[in-house]
């Protein structure tokens, strides 16, 4: 049994979709990020970085894992699926997983900060992050040109990238003309585990937040930026 400490964000969904796909039983512990629950001493004792997601493996001496990529690898190794053991095949999965961890995630995260949450509009910063996201989307599109999935078979690399790329509207990044990416996004959306995992811990907001709901969401995100 796994304890999952999470919130309804792309990094949180990477863990919940993986758990769903691997059919590993788990208990959800929602962490309210706008209230700062990720900075309580109890949470920091599990993840000194004060970020979700975190898992605790009750069947392995309460072993704790933080960093979403490390969580996905731990779970895939535990179940023996979504991450091959053959060296080249495994490396191909790791390459696209690291591409998400070091590129897609941080760049879309910063696009969100400057496009949505920052009190001032600093256009060069917005442009920089949105252009970089678009460039990374084009890399994914090229990677998917001659294959169904990012690596050889469906893997944690697909889940990691999908959980972020599907939120492209919130980052204000276009996916126009990226046909391979569109096809892959549609394939992923059909998967029951993807559909279920993004409802954890609560259903996501509508595609386009507006009015009070948007302001409330932005207020919560700004609270996080100030600390
Ligand atoms: N590299 C970390 C990033 C985790 C991360 O940034 N989580 C965000 C939610 S998507 C968070 O906990 N934010 C809380 C905060 O900024 O205080 C991972 O992949 O797990």
Describe, in plain words, how this protein is organized in 3D.
By secondary structure, this protein is of the alpha+beta class. The chain contains ten helices and four strands; from the N terminus they run βαβαββαααααααα. It has helices at about 10-20, 40-45, 70-80, 85-115, 125-145, 155-165, 170, 180-190, 190-195, 210-225; strands at about 1-5, 25-30, 55, 65. The chain has a four-stranded mixed beta sheet with strand order 2-1-3-4, with helices on one face. About 35% of the residues are buried. The model has no long low-confidence stretch (mean pLDDT about 95). The structure holds glutathione. The site of glutathione (GSH) has 12 residues, from α1 and α3.
Produce a short descriptive summary.
This protein is of the alpha+beta class and 227 residues long. The chain is built from 10 helices and 4 strands.
Q: What proportion of the residues form beta strands (DSSP E)?
A: 5-15%
- Name the hetero compounds present: glutathione
- Give a count of the beta strands, DSSP E runs of length 2 or more: 4
Helix-strand string: EHEHEEHHHHHHHH
Distance, first to last CA = 33 Å
- What level of helicity do the residues show? 55-70%
Helix count equals 10
What is the global morphology? globular
What are its keywords?
alpha+beta; 4-stranded mixed β-sheet; 10 helices; 4 strands; 57% helix; binds glutathione
Q: What topology emerges from the helices and strands here?
A:
Layout: E1 2-6, H1 10-22, E2 26-30, H2 41-46, E3 54-57, E4 63-66, H3 68-79, H4 87-117, H5 123-143, H6 156-165, H7 168-171, H8 179-189, H9 192-197, H10 211-225
Parallel strand pairs: 1-2
Antiparallel strand pairs: 1-3, 3-4
The chain binds glutathione (GSH).
Residues 9-11, 33, 38, 50-52, 67-69, 224 line the site of glutathione.
């Amino acid at each position: 049994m796994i304890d999952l400490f999470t919130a309804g964000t792309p990094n949180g969904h990477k863990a919940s979709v993986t758990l769903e796909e691997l059919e590993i039983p788990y208990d959800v512990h929602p962490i309210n990020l706008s209230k700062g629950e990720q900075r309580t001493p109890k949470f920091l004792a599990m993840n000194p970085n004060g970020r979700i997601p975190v898992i605790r493996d009750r069947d392995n001496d309460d072993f704790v894992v933080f960093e979403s990529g490390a969580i996905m690898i731990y779970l895939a190794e535990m179940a023996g699926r979504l991450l091959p053991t053959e060296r080249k095949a495994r490396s191909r999965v790791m390459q696209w997983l690291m591409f998400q961890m070091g590129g897609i995630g941080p760049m879309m995260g910063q696009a969100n900060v400057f496009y949505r949450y920052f009190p001032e509009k600093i256009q060069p910063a917005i442009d920089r992050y949105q252009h970089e996201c678009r460039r990374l989307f084009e890399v994914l599109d090229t990677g998917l040109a001659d294959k169904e999935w990012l690596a050889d078979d469906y893997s944690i690399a697909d889940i990691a990238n999908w959980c972020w790329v599907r939120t492209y509207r919130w980052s204000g990044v276009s996916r126009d003309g990226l046909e391979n990416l569109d096809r892959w996004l549609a394939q992923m959306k059909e998967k029951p585990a993807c559909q279920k995992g993004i409802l954890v811990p609560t259903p996501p907001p509508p595609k386009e937040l507006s009015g009070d709901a948007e302001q409330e969401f932005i207020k919560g995100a700004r609270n996080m930026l100030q600390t």
